[in-house]
Amino acid sequence: MIKMIIEMFPLFGNLKEPFLILEWLVFFIILELSIFLAIKLKKKEKETTTYGEIGYIYLSLGYSLMWMFLIIGDHYITQNILREHILKIGFFILVLAALFFISATEKKHLIYKKYIFSISYSIFIIIYLFIWFLKIELAIIISSSFWTIFIIYIIFHYRDLYKNYYIKGEVRKTKMMFLKFIIGLSSIIIGYVLIRLLTIFEYYLFYRFIGNILQIIGAIFLFIFFSEIPSLSELYWKKRLVSFYIILKSGLLIYYKHFRSETNYLESSLKSGGIVSVEMILENITDSNGISLIERKDKKIIIHSGKYLYGVLISDEILRSHQFILRNIILKIEHIFSPILSNWQGDLKVFSPIDNIIEDMLK
pLDDT tens, 202-238? Predict the structure, then answer.
């Protein structure tokens, strides 16, 4: 059986050209994904701090290169020993790409202990290389450990990613977005496994065809996922918050919350008064009743102008999550306090429930 499997490469027959076209298509689609991610990262660098996005570029680029070596080995190389070396090089490129992905994402995304997955993965690479020179058969067994660690990391990574990325009010959209990622990644993994099922010789070409189709489907779903997700920096929207103010249209501060150092009411009132003055100027110029953005040194100010209130959020960077949350908080507070705001008598105590409302919406 093993001899028959060896002799079937390079692939030949009437199906050689269709398979070749299909597999080069897989290579170019996944390569395009890495280029797409690089372009998106370049655009985002000026807008937000990037958190490990470069890891996804390493992973998709590494996978496309591995696929290229697989095509060369299975379609163009006639010598079995050379083919084995070509496939091993491709496999090791993917292993290194997975390591770069783990280290790049783990750098800013602490799951258990810092770099625990990167260190574990690196140890297995060293063991693999050491055994590979001594006894290649055992190295193949060790290689399964790479993907065990990688899959465990992916599960933890995306569990936390979904948990932190979740914004109340966008749960359905977030679920659909991550479902596309799960479908995409699962299709690529299953497709790869089917293509490497060399033990089932009788049905190998059928499995390889299905595997190629799954690769294309998976890459398309990943394209959709990465085009929809704005930036992984959105994961850390809570950590980027500095201060939050709610101000009456008259300029009176009725609520403030600081997420870092404490500031007294007088200082907060002076800050809010200055912010409102700027917002009034913006309204006169732009005739806007929505979101206004102000950048000052290392702080970003997001202002939402409602019917009765100004909502002001100060953060380290302007994120989609912050704008969404600010708008929803002001809309909800105006809806609840509408009878009071339309005929307010000057009692600030009536606004004391605002703190509970905001705490609930920031969970």
Answer: 677 788 889 899 999 999 998 888 877 766 666 667 7
Q: What is the CA radius of gyration of the chain?
A: 27
Nearest alpha-carbon partner for 195 in 292, 66, 296, 324: 66
Q: Report how far residue 105's alpha carbon sits from residue 157's, in angstroms, rounded to the nearest whole number.
A: 9
Tell me the C-alpha distance between 78 and 130, whole Å.
Answer: 28
Cα(173)–Cα(168) distance, rounded to whole angstroms?
11
Give the count of beta carbons closer than 10 Å to the beta carbon of residue 233: 23
pLDDT tens sequence across 78-128: 787 788 788 888 888 888 888 888 888 777 666 667 778 888 888 878 877
Could you tell me the two tokens for 310? 């100004």
User: DSSP letters along 315-361, please?
Assistant: ESS--HHHHHHHHHHHHHHHHHSHHHHTT--S-GGGGTTHHHHHHHH
Per-domain residue ranges of the chain: 2-234, 241-361
Asked: is 241-361 a CATH 3.30.420.40 domain? The reply is no
pTM, full prediction: 0.67
pLDDT in tens, 41-73: 776 654 444 556 788 888 899 999 999 998 888
For the chain, give the mean pLDDT: 75
CB atoms within 10 A of CB 252: 14
